[in-house]
Design goal:
Length: about 625
C-alpha cells in the first residue's frame, strides 16, 4: 500500500515544516509566544500612540501594519529587504506523501491567507497617497528654504526665485529666518518619509526607481532656479575662472590678483587672498564658464550651477548602478544618497565643486564594482583633479586591484603603489593641459584658518585653550588648536588604514564611503558639502540597521551653516566652541536614541508578528479538519 495521506489535524504527529532562511517555524514561534509577550510602548496614552506612529514613520512605516506587511515593516526597521523575512507557508504533509485535500472553509471563518492578501492590497491606495504627501511636503520645504534664504550682499545683480508672501531681504530678517527653519523641517519630514517608502511602493522595482527619480527631479527644481544659498564659494569659482582666462594661475595666487572689478567684489573677503584648492578640471571648467557667458559674473555663476547639477546627475546614475551591484533597493538608495537636504541645498543650491567630484567619484566606484578597473582609475583621477579628498578612493582601488580576498599584503602594496603612480602621471598631464601648477595640492590647508565650523578636533582645541588660560598656562590658542587637529588627523588616518586592510571583507564601496565620512568628521574643518560624497557611497552600498543614524547625521549636518558668510556670529564668539561641542553631543545622543527606538520598534513588531503567526497556524489547522 502506498503511503497514507495525512491531514493537518492537531492530533496528528508533528508535521514537517519548511521555513525560509532567518524565519522560525510556526511551532517554534508558538513555543516562544506562550504566553504572548508584547513590548510596551515608550509612553502611554494618546501621546504614546502619536510617538509610536512618529517612530514608525521615521523607521519607514507610517502606521502599524497587519499581516504580511508586519514582516516587511519589521525588516525595514533593521535594514533588511522586506522579502528577506517573509515566512514560507507551513507544510503539514511529509515528504513522499500526496498533499491532503483541504476541506471547504466554513462561511463564518474567512481563509486567513486570503484575508492577509486582501488587507495588503487594500493598503495600496494609502501607500501611494502617503508617498505623494511626503513628496509634496518635501517640495514645499525646499521651495520655502530657497525663496527665504538671503542673497550674498556683494553678489552681482541676477534673477532669483521668489514666492508671494515669503520675504527675501538681502541680509535676512526674523520672519525670513523662521520660514527658513520651517522649510528645513518640512524637508526633513518629506525626505525621511520618502527614504522609508521609496522601495515599498506598489509595482515593480523599476517603477519605484522611476518614482524616486521623479521626486528627486521635483525637489531639485527650486535650488536649480534659485540664487546661490548658504555659501559664497561659487563667486570664488567665477573669479578663479576669470583669472584663468587672463593667463593667471589661480592655484598660486588669490583673487586679489584681479585688482578690481565685479568678479573680485563678489568674492567673500576671507577668501580673496587664498589660492584655489581645486584641481585642473575644476579650474578649466570655471574658465569655460566665464568664456561661454562673455565674462559676465552673474552668467558665470549660473554656468557653475549647471556644472553642479551635472555632478549630481552623475551621482544619481552611479548610486543606482552601485545599489544594483550590492543588491540594495535602488529607489531608496537614490532618495537617501542623492535627494537629501545636503545635496539639494549645498551641492545644487550652493553650486559647489564638490558636486562634480562626488559625481565622478561615484561613477568611478561603480566602474570598479563592474570590474572595469582602468576606467575606474581614470574617473577617480578626474574626481581628484576637481578636489583632492577623492584621492582616498585610489588607495582602496589599488589595495583591492586583484579583487582576491587571499592576496598577500606584498601584492596589495605593490598594486596600490602602481595605481598611485599611474594616477600621479595622469594628474601631471591634466595640470599641464590646464596651465596650472601644483599649488592646489597644498592650498586646501588655507581653509584651516576657519575655526567656526563644527569640527570636533577644532572645538576641543578651543576648549583646551580656555582651560589652559584659566590654569595660567602660557600656551597660545593656535597651538592648542593645531595639536588637537593633528590628533584628529592621526585618529582619522588610523581608522582609514584599518578600513583599507579590512576592505576586502567590508566591501570596497562601503569602506571608501566610511573613510570619506571619518576623514571629514575628524578633520580640521567640517563644511556640510564635504559629507555627501561619502554618504552617497554608504547609501548605495546599503545602510542596513544604521539607517536611523544616517538620517540623523544628514539632518543635523544640514544645520551646520547659516547664510551667508563663514564669519561666526559676533555675539557668540566667546562661547561658540562650547555651544558647538554641545550641539555635536546632542546629535550623538539623538542618533543613539534613534537607533534604540528603531530596534525597540522592530522587536515590538516581531512579537506581534509571532502572535499573528500563531493565530494563522491555528486557523490553518482548523480549516484542514
Amino acid at each position: 500500500m502506498g503511503p497514507e495521506r495525512r491531514t493537518s489535524r492537531a492530533s496528528d504527529a508533528e508535521p514537517a515544516v519548511t521555513t525560509t532562511p532567518g524565519t522560525a517555524p510556526l511551532h517554534e514561534i508558538a513555543d516562544r509566544s506562550a504566553p504572548a509577550r508584547t513590548a510596551p510602548p515608550l509612553f502611554g496614552g494618546r501621546a504614546g500612540v502619536w510617538l509610536q506612529r512618529a517612530a514608525d514613520a521615521f523607521a519607514g512605516r507610517a502606521s502599524a501594519p497587519e499581516g504580511a506587511d508586519a514582516v516587511a515593516s519589521a525588516a525595514v526597521v533593521v535594514g533588511a529587504p522586506p522579502e528577506a523575512t517573509l515566512p514560507a507557508p507551513a507544510q503539514t504533509v511529509p515528504i513522499g506523501s500526496a498533499p491532503a485535500r483541504r476541506s471547504p472553509a466554513p462561511s463564518a471563518v474567512p481563509d486567513a491567507p486570503a484575508a492577509v492578501a486582501w488587507r495588503t492590497t487594500s493598503r495600496r491606495p494609502a501607500e501611494v497617497l502617503l508617498t505623494v504627501v511626503y513628496a509634496v511636503v518635501g517640495f514645499a520645504g525646499v521651495l520655502v528654504v530657497v525663496a527665504s534664504a538671503p542673497v550674498w550682499r556683494n553678489a552681482a545683480p541676477a534673477w532669483r526665485l521668489t514666492v508671494p508672501g515669503i520675504p527675501h531681504p538681502p541680509d535676512g530678517s526674523i520672519p525670513a529666518a523662521m520660514l527658513f527653519i520651517g522649510g528645513l523641517v518640512a524637508m526633513w519630514i518629506g525626505w525621511a518619509g520618502m527614504v522609508g517608502r521609496a522601495d515599498r511602493l506598489p509595482g515593480s522595482p523599476r517603477l519605484r526607481l522611476v518614482v524616486a527619480a521623479v521626486v528627486l527631479a521635483l525637489w531639485a527644481v527650486p535650488p536649480v532656479l534659485g540664487t546661490p544659498i548658504l555659501s559664497n564659494d561659487v563667486y570664488s569659482y567665477a573669479a578663479q575662472g576669470e583669472m584663468a582666462t587672463r593667463g593667471m594661475d589661480p592655484t598660486s595666487v588669490g583673487p586679489y590678483a584681479l585688482s578690481r572689478g565685479p568678479f573680485l567684489n563678489a568674492v567673500d573677503p576671507i577668501w580673496r587672498d587664498a589660492p584655489a584648492p581645486y584641481g585642473p578640471v575644476a579650474i578649466t571648467l570655471s574658465a569655460w564658464a566665464v568664456d561661454l557667458t562673455g565674462n559676465s559674473p552673474a552668467g558665470a555663476v549660473w554656468a557653475m550651477r549647471g556644472v553642479a547639477v551635472a555632478g549630481v546627475a552623475m551621482t544619481a546614475v552611479g548610486v543606482v548602478l552601485l545599489a544594483r551591484r550590492h543588491r540594495v533597493p535602488a529607489a531608496s538608495a537614490l532618495i537617501a544618497g542623492v535627494a537629501g537636504p545636503l545635496v539639494l541645498l549645498h551641492m545644487i543650491g550652493g553650486s559647489h565643486n564638490d558636486a562634480l567630484m562626488m559625481g565622478l567619484l561615484t561613477l568611478g566606484m561603480a566602474a570598479f564594482s563592474a570590474h572595469r578597473r582602468v576606467l575606474s582609475v581614470v574617473l577617480v583621477v578626474l574626481a581628484v583633479a576637481v578636489k583632492l579628498p577623492a584621492a582616498v578612493a585610489l588607495a582602496f582601488i589599488g589595495w583591492n586591484w586583484r579583487r582576491s580576498g587571499g592576496a598577500p599584503p606584498a601584492e596589495r602594496v605593490a598594486s596600490t603603489v602602481g595605481v598611485g603612480a599611474g594616477a600621479g602621471a595622469l594628474l601631471l598631464v591634466l595640470s599641464a593641459a590646464g596651465g596650472i601648477g601644483f599649488g592646489w595640492l597644498t592650498a586646501l590647508s588655507n581653509t584651516g584658518s576657519i575655526t567656526s565650523t563644527f569640527s570636533v578636533s577644532t572645538k576641543l582645541g578651543l576648549v583646551a585653550a580656555d582651560v589652559g588660560r584659566l590654569a595660567g598656562l602660557g600656551v597660545a590658542e593656535g597651538t592648542w588648536v593645531s595639536v588637537f587637529r593633528l590628533l584628529g588627523l592621526l585618529v582619522a588616518a588610523a581608522i582609514c588604514a584599518w578600513l583599507l586592510i579590512r576592505s576586502p571583507r567590508i566591501g570596497v564601496v562601503r569602506a571608501v564611503g566610511m573613510a570619506l565620512v571619518v576623514s571629514v568628521l575628524l578633520g580640521p574643518v567640517v563644511w556640510p558639502w564635504y559629507l555627501p560624497a561619502g554618504l552617497a557611497l554608504l547609501a548605495a552600498s546599503g545602510l542596513g540597521r544604521w539607517r536611523p543614524t544616517f538620517l540623523v547625521v544628514v539632518m543635523a549636518a544640514s544645520t551646520f551653516v547659516w547664510p551667508t558668510s563663514v564669519n561666526p556670529v559676533q555675539s557668540l564668539t566667546g562661547v561658540g566652541h562650547i555651544l558647538g561641542l554641545g550641539f555635536l553631543a546632542l546629535v550623538a545622543l539623538v542618533a543613539l536614541a534613534a537607533q534604540h527606538l528603531a530596534l525597540r520598534t522592530a522587536r515590538w513588531r516581531a512579537d506581534r508578528l509571532a502572535r499573528q503567526q500563531v493565530t494563522l497556524a491555528a486557523r490553518q489547522r482548523w480549516l484542514g479538519t
